[in-house]
Amino acid sequence: MIKNKKPTKVYSQEVINTQHVFTKDDTVYIKNNTSYKNKDNWSPIKFKWVSIGNVQDNLVLE
């Protein structure tokens, strides 16, 4: 007789924090946490765009 083992389900307990962002003229802006519903405050952040080609060239496979 073969015993069927029920699969063990594992659920992540970690919360994924997300933020609102948008880009304009090669600048990335992030929404301030203190902004009100009627008035949104956005701040530019330091962000450097990197092409997929550059990322692939710098990957190190072990």
How would you describe what is shown here?
It is a single chain. 11% of the residues lie in helices and 21% in strands. It contains one helix and three strands; from the N terminus they run βββα. The protein has a domain of 38 residues. Strands 1-2-3 form a three-stranded antiparallel beta sheet, with no helix packed on it. The chain has 62 residues and is of the alpha+beta class. The model has no long low-confidence stretch (mean pLDDT 79). The radius of gyration is 22 Å and the shape is flat.
Secondary-structure content class: alpha+beta
Strand element count: 3
N→C terminal distance: 44 Å
Series of secondary-structure elements, N-terminal to C-terminal: EEEH
Give the strand content: 15-25%
> If strands are numbered along the chain, what order do they take across the biggest sheet?
1-2-3
Fraction of helical residues: 10-25%
Residue-averaged pLDDT, rounded?
A: 79
Describe this structure in a few short sentences.
The protein has 62 residues and is α+β, with helices and mostly antiparallel strands.
Pick out its properties.
62 residues, alpha+beta, 3 strands, flat
Please give the structural blueprint.
Blueprint: E1 21-24, E2 27-31, E3 42-45, H1 52-58
Antiparallel strand pairs: 1-2, 2-3
